Every structure is written in C-alpha cells, then in structure tokens.
C-alpha cells in the first residue's frame, strides 16, 4: 500500500492592495541600484525598462524644450517614430503631473493642433517618419514651436 501524500496547502491569496504594496516595496529596493537611482520613488515598470534600455544602448533620450523654456527628457527606443516620441512625451508629462498633483488633464489634441515639434529648424510633420531620418540622436533637443495661423 502506497504511503499517503500530504495534501498540498492552497497558495496564500493576497488582496490586490497587498500585492500592490509588495510590488512597490520591491520596486523601491530595485531603484536603490546605482543604475536606477535617478528614478523617482513611485517608479513604474515602464520607467525601469526605459532606464535599462538606455544603459544597454537600445534607447535614447530626446530633450524636448517646451514653449516656457523647460526641458523635458523623454526616453524612446533607438528606431522610434515621431508619433512614438509624442506618446512618450505625453506619458512623461502625465506621470509627472500625477506625482506632483498638478493639472490632471491636458488636451493633447489642442497641443498638437497648436504646436509643432521641430529639430534643427525642420518641422517633424510626418508622425510615421523615424527620428533618425530627421537626424535626431541621443541627447538631441527637439522644440515646441507655435504653429502660424493660415
């Protein structure tokens, strides 16, 4: 007669809030690494991925100069398109606003109707075109320029 195997205990179930707290604690420990120490305390997995990609040369930082003179560093993959840069900028601004408790809603439709992104005097007009086709490289600066009325 075979020995009876002990019944397996069901896995411990955690509430969503508990899992989220454990995840945030693990992320806080992770960002103490010298590679990731520049990241904010409430870091997202996306931000960690971007920082690691930067370190391995798979991504680049594009500095976006806003109309008020502030420069925003945005991380995109090496072969990113203009549209991907716009989406990364939007995500960066939304995360920053959420952390600072500022204005929660910006009309990005209005922003892109009112402003162009430019690099070296050239409008980045084609969303599908790759940044490198415009000559944009790591740490280059792209500016918001107000569109002229027709």
Plain-language structure description:
The protein has helices at 16-30, 45-55, 82-100, 108-114, and strands at residues 59-65, 71-77, 115-119, 122-123, 141-146. The protein has 150 residues and is an alpha+beta fold. Strand 3 and strand 4 form a beta hairpin. The radius of gyration is 22 Å and the shape is elongated.
Q: What's the SSE pattern?
A: HHEEHHEEE
Could you estimate the helical fraction of the residues in percent?
A: 25-40%
- How far apart the termini lie comes to 91 Å
Query: What general outline do the C-alpha atoms trace?
Result: elongated
Quick check: average pLDDT? Answer: 85
Major β-sheet annotation = 5 strands, mixed
Compute the CA-based radius of gyration. Answer: 22 Å
Number of helices: 4
Structural class: alpha+beta
Please count the beta strands (DSSP E, at least 2 residues each).
5
Low-confidence stretches: none
Strand order of the largest sheet: 2-1-5-3-4
